[in-house]
Design a protein that fits this description.
With 193 residues, the protein is mainly alpha-helical. The protein contains 9 helices and no strands. It has 2 domains: 95 residues, RNA polymerase sigma factor, region 2, helix turn helix motif (Rna Polymerase Sigma Factor, Chain: A), CATH 1.10.1740; 97 residues, Winged helix-like DNA-binding domain superfamily/Winged helix DNA-binding domain (Arc Repressor Mutant, subunit A), CATH 1.10.10.
Length: 193
């Protein structure tokens, strides 16, 4: 059902953007409700703090509203919006470098919890386990993985947005998948070789 809503929104996005450019607030709210989850996932994957990620979602959509006139019809709207979200998040991280160190400490805790979950089978929560495993990826691998699997971007689009070679994107994605397999194999009762 959720995928149907996203597909419906994608087919209407040009019309909605035109309406927003003319001042239609309801059209803007439809865009927000259709994309806020994806923006949140991206922001959270980078800042690893729910409150900061929620703030970044708001900032991203405020920036979108400011820049909507510069959107060119026919371009990939989602990719354009995700670039705004990424830029907002990177600016936030630059301003809060000391907080970034704290999030690395939180990442270590997530890694510890991930490995300790195998000792406590009663706490098996696959969604949480995968989420923690994704957070445990190195930053560039995590970003490429999220852009490919959560934002549904192709390697070429990711390469263009991150301004790196498409081969580098493929390599980062491959390494991310390998690392996730290695992290998740013990929890899923398999072995990784």
């Amino acid at each position: 059902m959720e995928q149907e809503n996203v597909n419906c929104l994608e087919t209407q996005i040009e019309l909605l953007v035109d309406l927003v450019k003319k001042g239609d607030k309801e059209a803007f709210m439809r865009i927000v409700s259709g994309y806020q989850q994806k923006v949140f996932v991206l922001a959270y994957s980078m800042v690893r703090d729910r409150e900061d990620a929620l703030d970044l979602v708001q900032e991203t959509f405020m920036k979108l509203y400011e820049k909507i006139q510069s959107y060119r019809s026919g371009n990939n709207f989602q990719a354009w919006l995700m670039q705004i979200a990424r830029n907002q998040t990177i600016d936030f991280l630059r301003k809060n470098k000391s907080r970034k160190q704290n999030s690395h400490d939180g990442l270590e805790m997530a890694r510890t919890e991930l490995s300790s979950n195998q000792d406590n089978p009663d706490r098996f929560n696959p969604k949480e386990m995968i989420h923690k495993a994704v957070l445990a990826l190195p930053e560039k691998q995590r970003l490429v993985f999220i852009m490919h699997h959560f934002d549904d971007l192709k390697y070429q689009e990711i390469a263009r947005q991150l301004q790196i070679a498409e081969g580098t994107v493929k390599s980062l994605h491959f390494k991310a998948v390998q690392k996730l397999r290695k992290l998740l194999a013990p929890q899923l009762g398999g072995s990784y070789e």
